[in-house]
Amino acid sequence: MNFWKKFEEGIEHILRLDEPPHKVALAIAIGIFVAFTPFLGVHLIIASCIAWAFRVRIRIAAIATLACNPWTMPFIYGGSLILGNYLVGDGSSLKIHNIIDLVNHLGGAFLSLDLSTFKSFFSALLTAAKPFALGALILGSFASLISYLIAFFAFKHFKIEKDNP
């Protein structure tokens, strides 16, 4: 079974749920927002906890985090850095050489296990953290709002058609 067939079946399953459109759309928006955070490897856990707190479908929120994947990651994280640099604007803008330094310091820190190398890594990381966090917060909020609106109206429309054959 190919990817698109599985994807279509997943959408049909979500559409058949007996949930109000608001809850489905909120679960999707939570997953999209979490996908924009820099916490790679724990997106599913974070989305599941937030979905549980909001009492929406955990599975839908977890699936929506898959919006951050190897094909979209450069755009999501690159856009977050660019927007964050633009908004911070205090002369601490992140340049490509800062990112290269960060990667080099990370590799060096793990290879040498030297305390000064770890300090260099965290110094380079802090240079990137402020603009990245700000950009990710804004882009994630915007993307989750748009995804909520699209999902809400799409599911509301589907429910109306389903109830009135």
TrEMBL record:
<keyword id="KW-1133">Transmembrane helix</keyword>
<feature type="domain" description="DUF2062">
    <location>
        <begin position="7"/>
        <end position="159"/>
    </location>
</feature>
<protein>
    <recommendedName>
        <fullName>DUF2062 domain-containing protein</fullName>
    </recommendedName>
</protein>
<feature type="transmembrane region" description="Helical">
    <location>
        <begin position="66"/>
        <end position="88"/>
    </location>
</feature>
<feature type="transmembrane region" description="Helical">
    <location>
        <begin position="132"/>
        <end position="155"/>
    </location>
</feature>
<feature type="transmembrane region" description="Helical">
    <location>
        <begin position="24"/>
        <end position="54"/>
    </location>
</feature>
<keyword id="KW-0472">Membrane</keyword>
<keyword id="KW-0812">Transmembrane</keyword>
<dbReference type="Pfam" id="PF09835">
    <property type="entry name" value="DUF2062"/>
</dbReference>
<dbReference type="InterPro" id="IPR018639">
    <property type="entry name" value="DUF2062"/>
</dbReference>
